[in-house]
Amino acid sequence: xxxxxxxxxxxxxxxxxxxxxxxVLTFDSQKRLAQAQSTMASxxxxxxxxxxxxxxxxxxxxxxxxxxxxxxxxxxxxxxxHLDTIDAAVQGSWISFTHAERDQLLIDSYSLFCPYYGSRLxxxxxxxxxxxxxLIAGLEWLATHPSPHLELEEAWxxxxxxxxxxxxxxxxxxxxxxxxxxxxxxFQAVEKDFxxxxxxxxxxxxxGASSRTLLRMMRDTVGITPKDFIAYRLNTEAKxxxxxxxxxxxxxxxxxxxxxxxxxxxxxxxxNKLSPADFRKCLNIAPTVREP
Length: 292
Prior knowledge:
The chain has about 290 residues and is α+β, with helices and mostly antiparallel strands. About 50% of the residues lie in helices and about 15% in strands.
């Protein structure tokens, strides 16, 4: 089975009542971009903005960026764009997601969709730029040609697009960040110790907040709970190890701080709707030793 079908299978298992179709809008002027923002604002969506033509400054509510042809702006939390400095002839596409879709994308691409990093501008190389435009055109076509398998087809194309963007992240990427000092300390602590510490209470003590206060700050600022944030980070590392190494799944679980193989299997399957072994089968990656 192709690797990308694994993403489709995962999304197909999601509660359909919680996942509304993504929305793709094109714009060919500052006015059309403003209209797109107005359309999306009422739904509190999360956004990928591709600029096929741009040469101007853009300010958001958490950062400012210099736009250029072929760049991609990732907005993993509801963000207001200040469009007064945008070039009148700006062109591109606006791809928006619901909260449930963003959570799924966060599982599959932590580096792109983790709300901690805030808005960020990604410079697409010419080849990645051409591929991204082709895939976005595919999403636009699917949006106007519904089929019984629309959700799976969109998920498949989106997964390739996410991989294309993710592969373009480098030292030139313009990263944003959250300003709240306690949340910054929490994210830094999780990044340092997520393999050995899974307890929200322990992290809350380290940042000088109660668990309830940390929960409120996370929900108000990032939109997910501290427990979910830790789980997403663990899951991302588990998937990275399953993809890039031949380490037995049981050992991966132990390396990530799970006390039993069963606990790790249950954790992984709850998030991904696949067991670690089945996830590897989707990728055609065979472990060097027999799985238990």
